[in-house]
Amino acid sequence: MARIRAAVLPAVGAPLEITGIELPEPGPGQVRVRLAAAGVCHSDLSLSDGTMRVPVPAVLGHEGAGTVVSVGEGVTQVAPGDAVVLNWAPSCGSCHACSLGEVWLCANALVGAGNVYARRSSDGSDLYPGLNVAAFAEETVVADACVLPAPAGIPLPEAALLGCAVLTGYGAVHHSARVQRGETVAVFGVGGVGLAALQAARIAGASTIVAVDVSPEKESLAREAGATEYVVASENTAREIRGLTGKQGVDVAVECVGRAVTIRAAWESTRRGGRTTVVGIGGKDQQVSFNALEIFHWGRTLAGCVYGNSDPSRDLPVLAEHVRAGRLDLSALVTERIALEGIPGAFENMLAGKGGRALVVF
C-alpha cells in the first residue's frame, strides 16, 4: 500500500478535492502505472456534473499514459519499466457487440468502474476508478486489459492524448463518417476531440474543412489543425456553411459538442444525402426534433459515434505512424499544461468554451 496524490470527486456536482489516497499493490491480472500525463476531457466534466453516471466517490481521468511500476500474478503482456497508454474502455471479447467486431460498444467495457480500487488516506473510505483507469492521480492500478504498449518515438505526455481525444476524433472521421478524399467536412466544437477531427479530415484529404465554435479566439487553433474555413457559431451557422460550399452543404459534419442545437445545425449544414456523426455527449434534456417529411426529402444520415468507433489495439499503431510521419501533431491539441491542482480551472475553461486540451503533467 502506498500513499499518492489524486483528484477525487467526492459526490456528483461537488468540487474536486486534491488529496492523498492509499493505492494497493496490483492483484492478479492487474497493473500499477506511474502516470506521465493525463488529458482533461469533457467526459470528465460530464461525470462530475452527473450527465454520465459512475459510482462515487471516484478518481476521474481516463486519458493517460505512463510507466509500469509493477504487475500482478498472471500479467504477461507488460512488465515493470514498460511505457503504456491507458485504455479506459477495454473490450471483453465475448458480448454480442464484440462478437460483431464492434468492440467500441462492448457491453462490459465499464464493469471495472464499479469496483473499489483505492481508499482515502484521511478516513479509509472506498474510492472508485472513474472510467476504469483513474488517471487523475500520480499512480493508478488497472486491469491488464486497460493498458496498451505506448508507441515508440512518441513522448509519453503527448502519447496520453492517443487514449481518448485522438482515437475519438480520428475515428469519427475515418471509421464513422468514412470521409473520402475530396469531400467537404464541417467540425463543430474546437476542443481536444474537435482539433483531432480537423487533423483527421486533413489526413483523409478533405477539400474544404470548416471549423465551427462559439469562440472567435479559437480560429488560429482550428486553422493550424487543418481548417480551411472558420465559422463563429450562431443561428445562421448552417446557412453560412452552405454558402461556403456552393449552397450545397458539406458532405460530412462531425459534432463534438453534445448539444441539441449544435446537432441540429450540424445536420442542416450537410448536403442532401450528407452524413452527420455525433461525438459529443449530451444530457437527457437535450432533445433533437425532426419532422418525417424533411427526413425523407434530405436523405441525410445521422449517426452516433462511441469512442470514435475505434479498436484501440488496432488503431493505436496507425495513429502512431501518422504522428511519426508528421501528419498528426499531438502537441497542437494542447493549449495548457497543468498540475493536478489545475484540473478545476480546466473544467471552468471547458464550460466557458476556452482552449483545446488541458494536459496534466506529473
- The number of helical elements comes to 11
Ends distance: 20 Å
* Structural class determined from secondary elements: alpha/beta
How much strand content do the residues show? 25-35%
Low-confidence sequence ranges: none
CA-atom Rg in angstroms? 20 Å
Number-wise, the strands total 18
Return the average pLDDT rounded to an integer. Answer: 96
What level of helicity do the residues show?
Answer: 25-40%
Q: What's the shape?
A: globular
SSE succession: EEEHEEEHEEEEHHEHEHEHEHEHEHEHE
Main β-sheet: number of strands, strand sense, barrel status? 7 strands, mixed
Entry summary:
With 362 residues, the chain is of the alpha/beta class. Helices cover 26% and strands 27% of the residues.
Task: Label this structure with key terms.
single chain, 362 residues, 11 helices, 18 strands, 26% helix, globular
Q: How would you describe this protein?
A:
By secondary structure, the protein is α/β, with parallel strands linked by helices. It has helices at 42-48, 96-99, 156-159, 165-176, 192-204, 219-225, 237-244, 260-269, 292-298, 312-324, 343-351, and strands at 2-9, 17-23, 30-40, 58-59, 63-71, 83-86, 118-120, 126-127, 139-143, 147-149, 184-188, 208-213, 229-232, 250-255, 270-278, 301-304, 334-338, 357-361. Strands 3, 5, 6, 9, 10, 17 and 18 form a seven-stranded mixed sheet that branches. α4 (165-176) crosses α5 and α7 packs parallel to α8.
